[in-house]
Amino acid sequence: MLAGSAAIFTLVMLLLLIAYRRTPAPHQSEHRQERFWLYGLGLAFPLATLAALLIYGLVVGETLLPKSGDDVVTVRAEARQWSWSFGYADAAGLRTQGVLHIPAGRPVDVEITSLDVVHSFWAPRLAGKLDAIPGQVNVLRIEVAEPGEYQGVDAEFSGPGYSGDAFTVIAHDPAGWGAFLGRAKE
Amino acid sequence: MNALARHRALSRIWSSQPGWRGVISTVNHSDIGRMFLLVATLFFLIGGVLAMLIRTQLATARSAFVAPAIYDQIFTMHGTVMMFLFAIPLFEGAAVYLLPKLLGTRDLAFPRLTAYGFWCYVFGGLMLVFALLAGLAPDSGWFMYPPLSSSAHSPGVNADFWLIGVTFVEVSAIAAAVEICVSILKFRAPGMSLDLMPIFAWYALVTALMILMGFPPLILGSILLELERAFGFPFFESALGGSPLLWQHLFWLFGHPEVYIIFLPAAGVISTVLPVMARTTLLGYRWVVAAAVALAFLSFGLWVHHMFATGIPHMGLAFFSAASTLVAVPTGIQIFAWLGTLWKGQPRLTLPMLYIIGFFFTFVIGGLTGVMVAIVPFDWQAHDTAFITAHLHYVLFGGFVFPMLAGLYYWLPQLTGRKRFFRIGEMAFWLIFMGFNGAFLAMHWVGLLGQRRRIAWYPENAGWTEINLMSSISAFVMAIGVAMVVFDIALHALLAIRGSRNPWGAGTLEWAMPTPPAAYNFASIPIVGDREPLARDPELANKIARGEYFLGAPRGELRETLTVDAAGGRPEALVIFPGNSTLPITLAAFTGAGFLGALIRVYWVIPLALLFVVGLSLRWGWSQREATHTGLQNVGRATLLPQAIETDRSPGWWGSAFLLGADAVLYGSLFFGYAFLWTVGPNWPPPQWLSLSVLELALGLIGAAVEVIGILLAGRAVSRSSPPPSLGILLTLAGAAMTIAALAMTLTRAGQLTDYAYGATIFVMIAYALIHAAIAAITICSLAYRTLRGGAARPRTSNVNIVRLWTDYAAFVAATSLIATQFSSYLR
User: Fold this and answer.
1) What's CA B300's distance to the chain center, in Å?
2) pLDDT digits (tens, 9 = 90+) for B266-316
3) Would you tell me which CATH number, out of the four given (1.10.20.10, 3.40.47.10, 2.60.40.420, 2.60.40.10), belongs to the domain A73-185?
4) Phi and psi for A79 in degrees, rounded to 5?
5) Distance (Å) from the alpha carbon of B323 to chain A's nearest alpha carbon
6) How far is the alpha carbon of A179 from chain B, nearest alpha carbon, in Å?
7) CB contact B495 to A (< 8 Å)
8) Which of A35-57 are b and which e, b meaning 16 or more Cβ less than 10 Å from the residue's Cβ?
């Protein structure tokens, strides 16, 4: 996308520069110029580029969609001013504050909602944003290959405490995930 | 009569009063246009100072420059001021000043409305400036998402300043938009068909229509949110059947078209200035017009792309993503039409052209990043980061401020009659250009690194400090550039030497007059047969001054101009404009008093202010200047035309029609909200909330029918001129009274309005219908009064036709809202 954009930008700048450098051809008919500039560059060129880009975007978007499977883990993220609280379908009653535990290597559905104003759940290295809206549950599918710690933040302006409103995602290996859930059962 | 005597006579007739009295009583479009431009520029400087405060805060990590509570006010007000108090009013000012001169007429359609709109803007802007100085400014971000902006989470008066101040300013935008539409369609030089209009007029027409379509959803949203804040009507409260997303839909239904409302006038400036700088004509005039219209249509289908992260269903995302990429096509057509124009001609590198090159550079980058964020997976990452801030500044600063600076330097000789002497503008350009790109290129980068927009501080270890510092330094370089432009213009206006009449060799009519322009614009109204009449006939200016065209002989003390038929430009009627008046500023002050009453929650002020507003409006309509003579009038060149007031569709009719169009969009948005809450709300509508009452429904529907038939009869009686239209008027009045009774009865049954969003919604629908029924009743009463007075005051066809628009609309609204609310219990 960046390379394509750079190419289009360069093209426009070159056309602008050449307009100042060339001596205009005096006998070109207005109709021929319209055909080149408007049918060609104005209409056909963007339509072709955008169609390609859009198809690419939709295909990528499709792969990001949550698909049902047996080993999907469901967790719940509740935002409030200005902290995050997480719950786990596999361990009823277990809640963690400011830290979301997930298993690595398995698809995870995060059910996102808010207890007060609109927030947004964003762990940049795991997935895009999804808003936390009061009275509504949005589901975000994430999947982490490697165990480790990942940073997350609130990404919709939510008042004076917004800048510091962050959380951590800890992805466990299978043993660690079992231990985490087991700890809850004790 | 020679040219000088004509100039003196016309100047005496059209001039505003000297000194401060002139400022408050002028209705002349050149005066008000200049005042608009000046005030909008002041707000640009205020918004710019706020921007510098933001950049100071972000220049260092963990900044302690201001606390988050203050910082939130600063960035909210920066966005609000730039969008509502700078960009839109600057367009209005440019259009108010330029349009009559481009179109070859003497003033805009409704001179007093121009003044009223200006004063509403000033008073509304002052409210927000006061809030800023008092530390009470809105602080929920410029798009004011509830519940953050609801009373539970923003208990102070801050959010009310936004909702009420901005709505007041929008009254002015609606007034200007109605004015611009009617002026472009009806007030042109004879012979100027739509096809021959200067391209800027096309852009202004499309923009004004977009304002009429785009602003009502936000006005409705603001009314609903203020009702929620003040009285607890739970429109946006999910626990009570409302939805916070309803606000987001209404806001972006306005907010996305707003971007194009800002860009299109700037594109109009480029399409005007660039061909002159290339010593040629615009390539593909019709393509460009079609592209502007296409952009306007598409822009209303894009609002959801601001909400990609709110959990919109997948098919919705695909549709809006496709629509969002599609806007690049008409934009591309315009860009390549301009490039082709440069290739067709011999471009000069003048100062306006320098700013246009700055536009190309920045706007193309902004357009390309715009296509990127239209792609959903990319947007999910980039959304609400500094990348978006950078993108929107490339589009808005690149797409609006650069072209407007080009336009400023292009029309400056027309505005002042002087020649540029100091060469500060070039240096200022380079500072602005380098500063802008330095500041915002860096912001793309830091946004991709993860910096969110609207944060008040970031940690030292984020690795963003150097980029932000560079961005802040560049921003200050840009600010110095802007200050130099202001200094340059001030020096120019005070010190520069007199210049020639048409320094750029342009072909449009605003250069066919002495500069600075006289209050009456054209000593006689020219006949146009070409898109560039001045290029075709270099003697045109002298012929106009010699009075060779229409209305070259001033009569009495009347401010006269012509209307034409909308499409073809055939002269249609003679218009007599009202003179200087303090009525507009007084009416704006009372309108402001009503808004102020709502703001400080002293509600008894509102009916009192309303009483004055209605009274003054009636006086306004009544004091319309009417010629002493009736029948056909000689307008010069052996042409006889009727007076506009004696035609079927006077300018007032056109103005009412456009205003009601915007009103209907507001009503449609209300139905959208009703349907939206219905789809998201559980248990909607609640059982037995409002049971069907046959009496109310029958009374309302019959009343609406009687109202429609009555005004039809009144119209027939007036066109036959005898007997007086008493029966029709009485029937209309009776019909209006019946609808009012039916609506009032329904309203009393609406129940507990704060318990559930459903009751609150039908309350608003019925109240809306009730207000329109009352307006209709007032207009009929004025018609009845005219009939009773008789003689010169007797109702004309144009009077009845205007009243008919209002009564028919009121009947329609009463019928539909009664049906929607009464039958809703069957909708489950």
Assistant:
1) 16
2) 999 999 999 999 999 999 999 999 999 999 999 998 888 888 888 887 777
3) 2.60.40.420
4) -95, 145
5) 10
6) 32
7) no
8) eebbeebbbebbeebbeebbeeb
Going across the sheet that includes A91-97, the strands are: A91-97, A83-88, A73-80, A108-114, A138-142
pLDDT in tens, B454-479: 999 999 999 999 999 999 999 999 99
Paired sense of beta strands B559-564 and A119-122, if any: unpaired
Residue B584 CA to chain centroid, in angstroms? Answer: 18
Domain shared by B811 and B691, yes or no: yes
Burial status of residue B432 (CB atoms within 10 A of its CB: 0-12, 13-18, 19 or more): buried
CA-closest candidate to residue B29, choices B124, B109, B90, B133: B109
Look up residue B16 and give its DSSP letter: P
Cβ–Cβ contact B339 with A under 8 A: yes
| pLDDT of B106 over the 90 cut | yes
In a domain, B268, yes or no: no
Question: Model confidence over A84-130: pLDDT tens digits?
Answer: 999 999 988 899 999 999 999 999 999 999 999 999 999 999 989 99
The interface predicted TM-score (ipTM) is: 0.92
Helices B757-789/B199-231 angle, 10° precision:
120
Distance from C-alpha of A135 to C-alpha of B190, rounded to nearest angstrom: 60
What are the tokens at A169?
């995602």
Residue A92 in tokens: 């009823």
DSSP per-residue codes, B254-281 = HHHHHHHHHHHHHHHHHHHHHHHHTTS-
Cβ distance A62 to B311 under 8 Å? Answer: no
- The CB density around residue B132, as the number of other CB atoms within 10 Å, is 20
B234-248, B564-578, B623-637: least confidently modelled range: B623-637
Q: Are B439 and B476 in contact (CB under 8 A)?
A: no
Residue type, A163: S
Identify the domain containing residue B712 by its residue range: 683-826
The amino acid occupying position B64 is: A
Q: With CB atoms and an 8 Å threshold, state whether B68 touches A162.
A: yes
Contact B337 A65 (CB under 8 A): no
Do the beta carbons of residue A112 and residue A131 sit within 8 Å?
A: yes
